[in-house]
Amino acid sequence: MSSRGRILAIDIGAGTQDILLYEDGIPVENCVKMIVPSATKQVAGKIARATTAGRDIYLSGHLMGGGPMVSALKKHLAAGLQAYAAPSAAKTVRDDPREVEAMGVQIVQERPDGDLLEIALRDIDLDKLAAALVHYDVSLPDIVAVAVQDHGEAIGKSNRKFRFEHWERFLRDGGTVADLIYRDNVPPYFTRMLAVQEDAPGAYVMDTGAAAVRGALLDPVVGAHQKDGVLMVNVGNQHTLAALLKGDRIWGIFEHHSGLMTPEKLGDYLQRFVQGKVTNAEVYDDNGHGCAVLPDAPAAECFDFLVITGPQRHKAQGMGYFAVPYGDMMLSGSFGLVAAVKEYQ
Q1: Domain annotation covers residue 66
Q2: Tens digits of per-residue pLDDT, 177-210?
Q3: In total, how many domains does the chain have?
Q4: 249-257 vs 290-293, strand pairing mode
Q5: What is the per-residue pLDDT across 90-145, written as a single tens digit (0 to 9) for each?
Q6: How far is it, in rounded angstroms, from Cα 142 to Cα 48?
Q7: What angle do CA 9, 338, 316 make, to 5 degrees?
Q8: Least enclosed by CB within 10 Å: which of 103, 128, 196, 201?
Q9: d(Cα 81, Cα 157) in Å, to the nearest integer?
């Protein structure tokens, strides 16, 4: 890693946000690190407590990750309680406001009167983090990098299909490892990434799966195979993303939902993915996102070395090598963010 001073890297998943405060001049192992509940889990807890207390809620703030938060909101509405949301916060539930309102959420321009519990939505809260770290005599750096999974704004069509269309364009355009990070060039349809940049102006942003792949390459065992080719798989809490990587070029991508994976099913998919025998339609019809391999991709044997990372990696136990960059798998995405920032042109 070349010198870029201090970098705050936050990898936000469905269950946790993995935080690394990287600093030049000290071993990475000695940098400040934290694994804490993700913002969507925190919000879900607040909604659940409001449901138990019988209180109506008002959602303010920005678009953020859904998952647990949306599940808690549905239970709140099912209990006969009211939920109001600012337009920007409502997009956390669905891109199309008509779908949000059909669920029973009332979208309002201003907070309604009454005894409502206001819950602010955002993926990152730098003020909150700074307030926690000040007790340890640690300040936040100016450089911030955040990884989130963004399906993209897809009104009127499947967000699973819309997200994978982005990956297909990435492959056709000759996508490389260096192309996985954004700053001033965030695609306009990645509204969650743009919302992160509202809370952290100037932040670098990256997809969580891409950050994990980049971080896994920092494991020296994995790095030694990169030139010849590797099959990378990140088994996250919600999504499984696999990539065919040779040198810096990405030749194929497979994306599905981890909750639908058994070890046997995942092993079968990965074996056929390398062989170019998994179709996009097959994965989509199986409630995944998709699969694409470029027609001029290197031969399957180039990707015999399987690299596994992610909090649900036990589903790939015995299939390949468990990557442990800097001895810490849970921070693979954060390490990847730092490496990508340092290489950003």
Answers
A1: yes
A2: 999 999 999 999 999 999 999 999 999 999 999 9
A3: 2
A4: antiparallel
A5: 999 999 999 999 999 999 999 999 899 999 999 999 999 999 999 999 999 999 99
A6: 35
A7: 85
A8: 201
A9: 30
Partner residues linked to 35 by β-bridges: 18
pTM for the full model?
Answer: 0.92
**Where residue 309 sits, what CATH number does that domain have?**
3.30.420
Domain ranges, residue 65: 39-121
Residue identified by tokens 């494991």 is 219
Backbone phi, psi, residue 236, to 5° = -80, 180
* CA–CA dist 72, 61 (Å, integer): 17
Tokens for 95, please give them: 């891109």
Give one DSSP letter per residue of 18-75, joined into a string. EEEEEETTS-GGGSEEEEEE-HHHHHHHHHHHHHHHT--EEEEE-----THHHHHHHH
Read off the pLDDT of residues 30-43 as tens digits, 9 standing for 90 and up.
999 999 999 999 99
Query: For residue 1, which of 154, 145, 147, 205 has the smallest C-alpha distance?
Result: 145
Does residue 77 form part of some domain? yes
> Per residue, what are the HEC states of 209-247?
HHHHHHHHCCCHHHHHHCCCCEEEEEECCCEEEEEEEEC
- Adjacency order of strands within the sheet including 16-23: 32-37, 16-23, 6-12, 143-148, 204-207, 181-182
Q: What are phi and psi of 251, to 5 degrees?
A: -110, -15
Return d(Cα 243, Cα 229) in angstroms, integer. 10
Query: Would you say 2 and 340 are in contact if contact means Cβ atoms under 8 Å apart?
Result: no
In angstroms, rounded to a whole number, what is the distance separating the alpha carbons of residues 186 and 151? 13
In the chain, what is the straight-line distance between the N-terminal and C-terminal CA atoms, in Å? Answer: 14
CATH number of the CATH domain containing 57: 3.40.50
